[in-house]
Amino acid sequence: MANPRAAAHRRAWPRISLTMCTAVAVFVAGAAGGTWLGIDGARTERVVVVTRDLSGFRAVSAADVTLRKMARSAVPPGAMRSLGSVRGHYVLRPLHAGQIVVQHAVGPPAAAPGLVVVPLSVGNDSAAWIRDGALVDLLLAPTGPGGRAVVIRQVLVVDQRKTAAGGHLVFVAVPRDRECAIARVAGRGRAILAEVPGSGT
User: Fold this and answer.
1) Which of 13, 15, 60, 117 has its Cα between 20 and 30 A from that of 48?
2) How many domains are contained in the chain?
3) Residues forming beta bridges with residue 162, ordered by sequence position
4) What b/e sequence results for 39-59 when a residue is b if at least 16 CB atoms lie within 10 Å of its CB, and e otherwise?
């Protein structure tokens, strides 16, 4: 005659096995989910993006940029990752809302009130001694007939960049009322910089 207690044990085995399998499945799924979240976090980066359209040579305010998490595959080379390295600087070209800010789109720090920063193309011979923070005398000499030279004394060099064509751009802070005069000559003339004695360069 069959033992009733043994039969009860045999009926309980499937329930115990099912419970153990369920527990194992939940554990494995949880571990896999944690691993996936870790992998997903490693595949994203926080980068600086603009919150609204910006025109070129506009000083970036605190509200103009924010940090946003992006897929690493969508992050371009030179992407900026610090708000402090963008806020208070000029952008060198128009940027659209949601666009990632890259290093070569960020210009020099904004000028003091009453000044504006303008880029000037200079020869490599002049660029060899120029240093950020130097005071220079600026001469813009037109190359064609009918133009007038523009001379501005003791302008501040705030930044400089090499161009893709091998030239040199120098960013100088000039009085706002001289910006138009510079623009009239800069496109058809030559920029000459002379070091101011005692400027520390």
Assistant:
1) 117
2) 2
3) 168
4) eeeeeeeebbbbeeebeebbb
Q: Tell me the whole-structure pTM to 2 decimals.
A: 0.55
Residue 64 CA to residue 51 CA, distance in Å, equals 5
Long-range residue pairs from 141-150, CB within 8 A, at least 24 positions apart, any chain: 141/185, 141/189, 141/190, 141/192, 142/185, 142/188, 142/189, 143/188, 143/189, 143/190, 144/188, 147/184, 147/185, 147/188, 147/189, 148/185, 149/185, 149/189, 150/178, 150/181, 150/182, 150/185
- Tell whether 27 is covered by a domain: no
Q: Are residues 71 and 85 in the same domain?
A: yes
pLDDT tens-digit profile of 35-52? 444 445 569 999 999 999
Based on the fold, state whether residues 145 and 74 are members of the same structural domain: no
Find tokens 């989910």 and name the residue. 33
- 96 bridge partner residues: none
pLDDT in 10s for each residue of the chain, 201 residues: 555 555 555 554 455 454 544 544 444 455 555 444 444 556 999 999 999 999 887 889 999 999 999 999 999 999 999 999 999 988 888 999 999 999 988 987 877 778 888 888 876 666 667 787 788 888 887 776 666 778 888 888 888 887 777 778 888 888 888 887 777 666 666 777 887 776 554
Closest CA to 67 of 52, 85, 82: 82
